[in-house]
Amino acid sequence: MTDDVLAYMQRLGQAAREASRVLASAPTAQKNRALLAAADELDAARASLLEANGKDMDAGRANGLDDAMLDRLELTPARIDEMIEGLRQVATLPDPIGEIQDMRYVPSGIQLGKMRVPLGVIGIIYESRPNVTIEAASLCLKSGNATILRGGSEAIHSNRAIAECLDRGLETAGLPASAVQVVETTDRAAVGALITMPEYVDVIVPRGGKGLIERISREAKVPVIKHLDGVCHVYVDVDADAEKAIRVADNAKTQRYAPCNAMETLLVHNSQVESVLRPLVKVLQDKGVELRGCPRCLELFAGDMVAATEQDWDEEYNAPVLAIRILDSVDEAIAHINRHGSQHTDSIITENFTTARRFLTEVDSSSVMVNASTRFADGFEYGLGAEIGISTDKLHARGPVGLLGLTSEKYVVFGDGHIRG
Amino acid sequence: MTDDVLAYMQRLGQAAREASRVLASAPTAQKNRALLAAADELDAARASLLEANGKDMDAGRANGLDDAMLDRLELTPARIDEMIEGLRQVATLPDPIGEIQDMRYVPSGIQLGKMRVPLGVIGIIYESRPNVTIEAASLCLKSGNATILRGGSEAIHSNRAIAECLDRGLETAGLPASAVQVVETTDRAAVGALITMPEYVDVIVPRGGKGLIERISREAKVPVIKHLDGVCHVYVDVDADAEKAIRVADNAKTQRYAPCNAMETLLVHNSQVESVLRPLVKVLQDKGVELRGCPRCLELFAGDMVAATEQDWDEEYNAPVLAIRILDSVDEAIAHINRHGSQHTDSIITENFTTARRFLTEVDSSSVMVNASTRFADGFEYGLGAEIGISTDKLHARGPVGLLGLTSEKYVVFGDGHIRG
Question: Whole-model pTM?
Answer without folding.
Answer: 0.90
